[in-house]
From TrEMBL:
Transmembrane region(s): 9-28, 63-81, 93-110, 116-134, 143-160, 172-194, 215-232, 266-291, 303-325, 337-356, 363-381, 413-431, 437-461
Lineage: Bacteria, Bacillati, Bacillota, Bacilli, Bacillales
Keyword Heme: no
Keywords, alphabetical: Membrane, Transmembrane, Transmembrane helix
Organism of provenance: Paenibacillus anseongense
Highest taxon listed in the record's lineage: Bacteria
Protein name, UniProt field: Glycosyltransferase RgtA/B/C/D-like domain-containing protein
């Protein structure tokens, strides 16, 4: 009776933790106004939409990847709604359910290990308190990946507890299926499969509990089962797509040149990723779980070995796939903790087990050496090999507090002192055999640091922080996207419309305007094509005329080009500034204009043209000393009036005005403004006039204007360009 009562109480508590986690995370997820993470959220949302609407994996006219798509398949149910804002909310709610659901396998695992109910529940709470839970606010695979990995490792732990399951066919089929799901969710999940195979082999040499034949057969069986699941899903996805050419997002990345520079960078990456991973995992759980590894055949010891092996293989894959290829300098580190955070809770469980069971052999040579190294070198490494701050938002949320570390010297000082003090206290209490105090100290430290990480992540988004692009997190962006989506949906009811999305260029890593187009594209549910403006100008169009009916758009990065031409366009949505179009009429939509411009094509053929564009002019009409004007015309000579001023420039700048034929004139720009007439010529073969205006007379507003924080080096303002009529 008492046991049944305890089980009921446990059930209600764990369900309560789950529901509270879902509610809190869903509330906090509203801080993201729109999809914001590079092309990732765009890709998964569009694959989900295609799977729901067409039962295929189409993205921008390509049939996309045959693996790692379990997450978009699951969130595709959100597209039962037609309203884009409701779809976005539903996806985030699904994320909250998926990620919060880890409490159940963590509870079941912890209950098998500990006899202390409150310790079990505290570990469960920590599992949904880590900063990486912010992934619930993003359309990212990590929300499902966390749950799949935790469930898989839970059943692997059961195998460690029950060796009799080692060679059964049913069990091996089940485990290989779980391992495949890890990979089918996220490519880095392959590391768990490789770790399982390698651990099976190593366990033969470490524990001597199984015959070599049994080990060989198990490795072979698991490999064949995994390969069977892989090819079965690959064939199924190709079937629903009609067996087309598949655009693979990943294979294009594998280009290595094995030389000394590559090897040095790879070695540096392994060390630095490992260092920052230990920091992200709050040091003590990692050091304790590793230093406690022995040749004992206990399930918890096997779990520690397996998790360490999985982490190492994941780091090696990350190093070769990402660090070597994407890090331009080893002095600015991009660490994908989001690929590794799924293992953190297991390090913490292993650490808690050793302290709870008073393992007197924890403070060994390995522990002392690693602790001394961290205490002595951490501040040096953190300062010399800095994290790329912008990447902390997505790649390393468990290190998000480093935004404060690099911003405030006092935080930096407290952090470095804290590492030394924490390690000192831990070692001292272990020597004194104060295991209970050490356990409480470790769990409290982890929980507090997790809360700080959560606070940092959510506060940065709520304050509309702009490290990765202008406007993210703001209600203005949300309103513009919803207004545009609603407008197009209404027009689509009257008549099927085709939209062209046109950023200045493809999404850039520094948060260029392509990101805002990605955000809109993720939420758009009408027929559309995508064409970057600058790439479009370099396409085989003449005189700046965009004739798209038979033009094949560019494929998404790393992919094939679409097989279907763009066709006739009804509306153009762009983030391009300083451009005047012909045959495009600006559409007035309430609340739209800060981030996007919506045009209606007024040409029956669906074509439009660039009449004039100004290059290198800031939004406030200033420039950095050179600005170019491009005017498309079939004439050989035109006269233009240039409206110029230099309001805050302490000098009246001297400017040189020239065209592509070498014709050059000079004048002075007055502070109060002046209009200068210029006769521009072009070469016979040129499609456009290009007028350059240059000046060496510049100033920095911050040094001249009181209270200004503008550090740009500016020269003059180009207010307007008017072409004189003949």
């Amino acid at each position: 009776m008492t046991r049944d009562l305890n089980n009921r109480i446990n059930f209600f508590i764990i369900v309560g933790i789950f529901l509270v986690s879902v509610i809190i995370r869903f509330y906090l997820s509203q801080l993201t106004a729109a999809p914001i993470v590079f092309g990732d959220e765009l890709l998964w949302s569009k694959l989900a939409e295609s799977f729901h609407n067409q039962l295929n994996t189409d993205f921008r006219g390509n049939y996309f990847i045959t693996q790692n798509i379990l997450y978009p398949i699951i969130i595709s149910v959100a597209y039962f709604f037609n309203d884009s804002s409701m779809i976005y909310l539903t996806i985030k709610l699904i994320n909250c359910f998926l990620m919060s659901a880890v409490v159940f396998p963590i509870f079941l695992l912890s209950r098998r290990i500990f006899d202390n109910r409150w310790l079990v529940f505290f570990l469960v709470i920590i599992s949904v308190s880590i900063p990486e839970m912010f992934q619930t606010a993003l359309i990212m695979q990590e929300s499902l990946f966390y749950l799949i990995i935790v469930v898989t490792i839970y059943f692997i732990f059961i195998e460690f507890e029950n060796p009799s399951n080692f060679s059964t066919t049913t069990w091996n089929l089940f485990i290989s299926f779980l391992l495949f799901l890890c990979y089918f969710t996220k490519a880095i999940g392959l590391a768990l499969f490789l770790s399982y195979l390698l651990y099976t082999i190593l366990s033969y040499f470490i524990f001597k509990r199984n015959k070599l034949k049994e080990v060989a057969l198990k490795v072979l069986y698991i490999s064949i089962s995994f390969a069977s699941y892989y090819y079965l899903t690959k064939l199924s996805i190709e079937f629903v797509n009609g067996f087309p050419d598949i655009s693979d997002l990943y294979m294009q990345k594998f280009h290595f040149q094995f030389n000394i520079d590559f090897l040095l960078k790879a070695a540096s990456g392994l060390v630095l990723i490992s260092f920052y991973t230990i920091i992200a995992f709050m040091i003590l759980p990692v050091i304790v779980s590793i230093s406690s590894i022995s040749k004992q055949h206990s399930a918890i010891n096997q779990l520690s070995i397996f998790i360490l092996l999985s982490t190492i293989i994941s780091i090696v894959i990350m190093d070769f796939m990402i660090f070597v290829l994407e890090t331009s300098s080893i002095y600015e580190i991009r660490v994908h903790i989001r690929y590794l955070f799924v293992y953190f809770i297991f390090y913490l469980i292993a650490c808690a087990y050793q302290l709870y069971n008073k393992n007197e052999n924890l403070v060994n040579l390995f522990f002392i050496v690693l602790s001394v190294l961290f205490a002595a070198l951490s501040s040096f490494i953190l300062e010399k090999y800095k994290l790329v701050n912008a990447m902390l938002y997505v790649d390393a949320m468990m290190l998000s507090y480093f935004n404060l570390y690099y911003k405030y010297d006092v935080f930096k000082l407290l952090f470095n002192i804290g590492i030394i003090i924490s390690l000192t206290i831990f070692v001292y209490w272990q020597i004194k055999r104060k295991f209970r105090q050490t356990l409480i100290f470790t769990l409290a430290s982890v929980f507090i640091i997790s809360l700080i990480g959560n606070f940092t992540m959510y506060s940065l988004y709520s304050s509309n922080y702009k490290n990765i692009g202008s406007g993210f997190g703001s209600n203005e962006l949300r309103k513009e996207i919803n207004s545009i989506s609603n407008f197009l949906n209404e027009k689509n009811k009257e008549k099927s419309v085709k939209v062209l999305l046109m950023p200045r260029t493809e999404a850039k890593m520094d948060g260029g305007d392509g990101f805002r187009i990605d955000s809109l594209e993720s939420m758009l549910n009408v027929n559309y094509s995508f064409l970057p403006f600058l790439e479009g100008l370099n396409a085989p169009f003449t005189d700046g005329v965009f004739n798209l009916e038979n033009f094949y758009p560019f494929g998404y990065k790393y992919t094939n080009s679409p097989k279907v031409p763009i066709g006739k366009i009804d509306y153009v949505i762009t983030t391009v500034e300083n451009v005047i179009f012909e045959h495009l009429n600006l559409v007035s939509i309430d609340g739209v204009g800060k981030f996007y411009r919506v045009y209606k094509v007024d040409n029956e053929n669906g074509t439009f043209a660039v009449a004039q564009m100004i290059i290198n002019r800031h939004v406030d009409l200033w420039n950095d000393g050179i600005v170019k004007i491009r005017i498309y015309s079939n004439k050989q000579q035109i006269n233009v009036d240039l409206n110029l001023n230099a309001t805050d420039n302490p000098t009246n700048p001297t400017i040189k005005i020239s065209d592509s034929t070498g014709h050059l004139e000079s004048t002075i720009v007055k502070k109060t403004g002046s209009i200068y007439s210029f006769e521009a010529n072009k070469n016979q073969q040129d499609q456009f006039f290009e007028i350059s205006i240059e000046s060496n007379d510049s100033f920095v507003p911050k040094t001249i204007i009181p209270n200004s924080v503008d550090t740009r080096e500016l020269s003059f303002r180009l207010l307007d360009v008017e072409i004189k009529k003949d």
